[in-house]
Amino acid sequence: MDAILLQILNGLDKGSAYALIALGLTLIFGTLGVVNFAHGALFMLGAFCAVTLNNILSLSFTTIDPDRTDFLGNPLKVETPYVESWFGPEIGMAIIQWSVPLSILFAIPVMVMVGLIMERGLIKHFYRRPHADQILVTFGLAIVLQEIIKYFFGANPIPTPAPPAFAGSFDFGASLGLEPGQIIYPYWRLVYFSFAAVIIAAVFCFLRYTTFGMVVRAGMADRETVGFLGININKRFTIMFAIAAIVAGLAGVMYAPINSPNYHMGMDFLVLSFVVVVVGGMGSLAGAVLAGFLLGILESFASMAQVVALLPGINQIIIYLVAIIVLLTRPRGLMGRKGVMED
After folding, report:
1. pLDDT value at 18 more than 60
2. Where do the TM regions start and end (predicted)?
3. Which of 43, 190, 245, 284 is the most buried (most CB within 10 A)?
4. pLDDT of residue 8
5. Average pLDDT, the chain
6. What is residue 79's predicted lDDT score, i.e. its pLDDT?
7. Which of 21, 239, 233 is nearest to 112 (CA)?
8. pTM listed for this prediction
9. CA angle 4–10–12, rounded 5-degree value
10. Residues 257, 288, 40, 115: what is their CA dihedral angle, to the nearest 10 degrees?
11. What structural domains does the chain harbor?
12. 249-263 average pLDDT score
């Protein structure tokens, strides 16, 4: 039971990232009909927003402390972050330590700007082009963004710590009445799962209960009819592209303490997220979320030592095996609309 609960938690953790990226992919495909292979790069940019803000908040100036000396007896040079000089040592240090959550406020306008530039500057020219063209141009864009990040931040992962309040682990076993110390799980991974749940719920509520969202859903079903009503549906779809960029960016921001940001992390998640979208059903938001969590849990169980010992390498291919089975038996995916991917 302990092992099962731990694998479920691990699966929810992985599934949260898969679901958030797949949700943004599905928003773009469902509204614009574009297969966006640069979406993983947006996830990467979000993670590096956290790195950038942490670097900015850590900027410091050098002062001489005459009361302290180094091992040679010279006055000691002290590096003092600017935020500590502005807000005081306690508040300044707290701001630096909480840079990842604060990066959410930094990442939102950045991702809006990146999303709008991508959509207006490049992707809008490929709306009516074949999906193969869309894949090629967005994949090329992803490589360009990846190389830009590599140039400015280097090729090595950059550790981005979580706030000290969430640095420890939670004893799930004790809270569930089981033996203490058997199910220990990091606090920040629980925070990430909760954050993902909030973002997913917010997107669904926005689409279902706001006038803007209702018009977008109508446009996804029949763009021409909505256009005949005098509604500028293309403008709303552009905004949805920016929202999808925000979702991917925020997923990357909060994932930074879990997996140290590096220039190829977007590609690592992109392929798996596309598999998630296909399994869930192309254009189905609910299917993308459901498939994300299901495949995350399945991958977690396939990574257990007992399973790997019995079937070596199964943890590396399990998601693709599931995708093959789903495509052979139900080409439209678990929750895809009838006729999609079936002709």
Report:
1. yes
2. 15-35, 42-64, 91-114, 190-216, 237-258, 270-295, 307-328
3. 245
4. 85
5. 85
6. 80
7. 239
8. 0.88
9. 105
10. -100
11. 2-56+103-329 (1.10.3470)
12. 92
